């Protein structure tokens, strides 16, 4: 199995997708991830090992805590173009489907957890469209989405930091396959 396929399969799990989101804002230990995700330490450690083995997260240091060593991991921010790709779906059809299914599941979970404040609504955006556009417009849209993703990732803070908002950003931009119309 190629590294890209291994990375796709490793990231195609709802818990690991959530971990990647959290590890973008701060280096965290398995214990911290377990607390934030409300899962067991063993479960958090397992999923971290899968992500690390696939090369998706990297060690971000160790510290001594109560006579033991705590290892921290992070999900490194990349360039705007790479970040826009996020969990890039590659060309493996099975891997693509796994990633899309995991993202859809995670988006539904986040939407169900969404807090709605009718007194003070927060800004939001939603776009779901299948369009035909000029190639230059498409390139610009992909660059802008990449810039937005990079802005958010570079400014992400550790969970529950005072003065921060808990937000969701899910972007999926891809070219569609053009098929001949049925007659």
Keywords:
single chain, 183 residues, mainly alpha, Arc Repressor Mutant, subunit A, two-stranded antiparallel sheet, 7 helices, 2 strands, globular, WH_DNA-bd_sf, DNA-binding transcription factor activity
Brief account:
By secondary structure, this protein is mainly α. The chain contains seven helices and two strands.
Secondary-structure blueprint of this entry?
Blueprint: H1 3-11, H2 14-25, H3 30-37, H4 41-53, E1 58-65, E2 68-74, H5 80-85, H6 93-113, H7 135-154
Antiparallel strand pairs: 1-2
Helix pairs in contact: 1-6, 3-4
Which topology does CATH recognise? Arc Repressor Mutant, subunit A
Q: Any idea what the CATH superfamily is called?
A: Winged helix-like DNA-binding domain superfamily/Winged helix DNA-binding domain
Overall CATH class? Mainly Alpha
Number of domains in the coordinates? 1
**CATH architecture descriptor text:** Orthogonal Bundle
| Count of runs of 4 or more consecutive helical residues | 7
GO molecular function: DNA binding; DNA-binding transcription factor activity
Protein name: DNA-binding transcriptional ArsR family regulator
Keywords: DNA-binding, Transcription, Transcription regulation
Domain HTH arsR-type: 6-90
